[in-house]
Amino acid sequence: MAARRFGSRFRSRDFRPPSPGSPRCPTEGAPTAQPRSFPLPRSWRYPLHKAFQHQPGCSAPMFDLKTIVAVLFFNALMQSVVWTLMWLSLRRFAALKFVAGGLLLVAIGLFLFMQRETPPEPWRVILDNLLIKAGLLMLADALARFLGQPRYPRLAVAWFGLHAAIWSTAVILTPSDLGPRVLSAVIYTSVVMLFMCATLMRDRSQPRALRWITIGILVEYIVAISGVYLMGVTLRSGGTAETAVLTNGDGWFFLQANLFLMAYFGCMLFMVSNRLAVDLRMQNHALAQEVQRRRELEAELSASLEAEMALRKDQEQFIRMVGHEFRTPLAIIKRATEMTGLMLPNPPAGVTERLGWIDDAVSRLITLIDRFLVIDSRDGGVLQIEDIDVNAMLEDVDRHFEALGMAPRLRVEPYPGTLIYRGDPDMLLTVMINLVDNALKYSPPDSVVDVRVSSIDSAILLMVTDAGIGIPEEEKGRIGSRFYRASNTRAATGTGLGLYNSRRLLAYHNGTLTLARRQVASGGDPKGDRRNGGAGTVATVRLPLPGPNAAMDSARKVDAP
């Protein structure tokens, strides 16, 4: 919007309709005051003047300038409110708040314009104009933001600064000459409008018809404000100084501004509506792709589940077959042990003791095989809950390795006092034997394995500490998985099932097994530290108190991690 109105007096007597016989009315035959203007044939100017006057009689202008400016002010203010509300409901369109801000600046500039005194102060003329021009520039920036096009903010600030400098200089140096100000305002507004046209021409996100309609509106406004300049600038003498006076051409100018704001509002509404429709289509497309992807995943999971079920069935069959094959030699060993005891007349005490160890070990192994078969077939009871004297259980562990000739390497520290735990004695004894066996297997032959028991935080802790090769840091997360063996255990025999089975048996007791590096005292150099930089391993069994509920645990299968 051009700014020649800013050098005028909004409340001057020039807004009063000319009375008959006054020099301002050409119909009374009196000499008519000729306006000073840029040279143009009168035939170019007359029709526009005629459009803003009643014919005949020149009793009042057809367009009341005060009304047009007031309508323009309320138009800009209400649009600013509407765009603010739309931005609050559509926060993803950040450009809408800049549209609201630009219109608010225009409304503030128009309000200050309507409050001018007569004659206006130069700073008021400058301030009003710059607020409106800043609002127009923000509207152009908002359009570029909304369409995702380049904004050139530095160039925009430089252009606004140049216009502000020219306008301010013209107001201060030649306050009575509207020509430079009108020319500067027309050029500034035209350049901003052309930038908006270029933004629309580069865009491909909006429909072509909508873009070209908006470009047509912008071009029409450029032509309209250029026509106001071509009509010339009217000056009127009043008092002792020459003062700029609003003429009927200003009515045309403000009317065009009203039409532009309404057209801009309508086009932006259509653009926002189209963007919402495009976003909705994109979301629907993305949703359809997600549904298709999930269907594919569901099909893959179904296939994986079927394969897992088939593998599970094969595994159960294999376990039953292996269990059957194990029972046969174990039964032979058990029977041979019994027959040996019967056939030897008065066997030595040592032989009888060793035969008893063999019989106990075979019986315990047969019992565990039967329980694992029960677990895998999911037939029912798993745990055989009894009161376990923890110290007595550790004595059984010690006797087991004494029969293997490894008792000198085992150091058991019992609990000071009586410590009772309710659980399955065979399962817990198997866990401790597995842990001690691993500790002895992966430790130097002349090292000692410590077994300690303690009670803390409503739980029983059983710790097996060795001075062996340790566990590589990068493999800690995988140790205890089925059939997995650490990279530094290849020299020793094993299946990778010991820790896995131990965790599985502990799971029935809600217990846990953790493995950690042994902490070496300052200055200490335990044997085994030289290999792999290890200082040994501490295996800690944690059994929460009270123990498992037999009625509940016998009816459910608990899988170890």
Automatic annotation (TrEMBL):
It catalyses: ATP + protein L-histidine = ADP + protein N-phospho-L-histidine. Residues 1-10 have a biased composition (Basic residues). Residues 1-38, 519-561 are annotated as: Disordered. Residues 321-547 form the Histidine kinase domain. GO terms for molecular function: phosphorelay sensor kinase activity. Keywords: Coiled coil, Kinase, Membrane, Phosphoprotein, Plasmid, Transferase, Transmembrane, Transmembrane helix. Residues 280-307 form a coiled coil. The chain crosses the membrane at residues 68-88, 95-114, 156-176, 182-200, 212-232, 252-272. Its EC number is 2.7.13.3. This is histidine kinase.
